Amino acid sequence: MEKKRRLIIDCDTGSDDAVALMTAVLSDQFDILAITTTHGNLPVKYTTENTLRVLELLGRQDIPVYPGCNEGMVKLLTPGRMINPKIKAISKVIDGKEVAIHDRYLDLPEAVTKPQTEHACSFLLRTLRETKEKITLVPLGPVTNIGMALRMDPSIAQNIEGIVVMGGGVHEANKSMAAESNFFNDPEAAKIVLECGAPVVVIPLDATKSVSLSREDAAFMAASGTKAAKFAADLVLHRIEAEELLGFSDNGKNALHDPLTVCFLLDPTVITDLWHCACDIDLGGGRADGQLLCDMRPGEKPTLPTYVAMRGDKDKYLKMLAEVLARGN
Ligand code: BDR
Ligand code: CA
Q: From the CA of 240, how far away is ligand 1's center (Å)?
C-alpha cells in the first residue's frame, strides 16, 4: 500500500476551513499529524474551539490541535498599516442581528476535547526539526505560525515536502482593493513562506472564485445525507446568504476557498491552470499592502519552486467534495 502523505494543517476555522478539514480527514488519504490554529477569520480562541468541534463531529479527537498566534508577526506594530479605507468587513450588525461569513462558533456541540498546551510555533519548529520523513503543510489562514517557525530556523524548509496555501489573488482581491484576506493579515509571514525554498503551490482567489458554488451545488453536496455533507452544505448556504446580506454577493454563488487546497492534494487535475512563476508580497504599508505579486512576464525565469493556480475545474471540485463528504455517518 502506498504511504499516506503526512500533513499538518494550519487554519483559522472558519466556515470554509471547516469544510477543508472535513475533506482532509474523511478522504482517508492523509496521515494528519496535527492541526495548528491561527488568527484571521476570528481570534485563535474561536478558531481553536471550532477546529475541535469539527474533529469531534468526525470522531477524530485523536488528531492534536495546537493553538497559535493571535495576530500577524509585525503588521500591527507599524502605525497606519491597517488604516485603509477600502478594507472590507466580513461581519456587520444588520437590523440588530450580527451577520457574518464566519460565525464566532460553528453550529456544532461545544468541544469536550482540550487543545494541546504547546504553542503551534514551537510544535512546528520541533516537529520539522526532528522529523525523519518530510511533511506537507496546508495553511488555510494567515501564515503567522509557519512564518515564525521558518524565521526561528530556516533550515526546517528542507523537511517540508511542499506547502499548498490558500492566499492571495492575481487578478482578484477581497480584503482591500489589492489584497486577499490571509496574505493581507500577515504579509511578512506570507513573504517568508513564499521564499522558504520548499515547493509552494499558491491557491489564490483567482482559482477559488473559478469554482464558486451555488445553492443547487449545495443541494448536490448534501444529497448523501451524511452529517459532514449536510453540515458542509449548510455552511455553503450560510456563506451565500451572508454575502447577499453584506452586499458583496457574486451572483448568488460563493467561493468556498480553503477546500480547494485539499482537493488539489487529492487530485492535482482539479487545478486546470498552474503557473511556475516568481512570487512576492507587497509590504509597502500603503493601499497595496499584502498584495500577491506574480511575475508572469514572458521569458522571466523563476528561481524558486513557487507555483500559482489560476483556474479550477468546478464540476470536478464539486464531485470530489460530495464524494468525500458522503463518507462517515
Ligand atoms: C480566505 O480568508 C478566510 O476568510 C477564508 O477562510 C479563506 O482562507 C479567503 O480570502
Ligand atoms: Ca481560512
A: 14
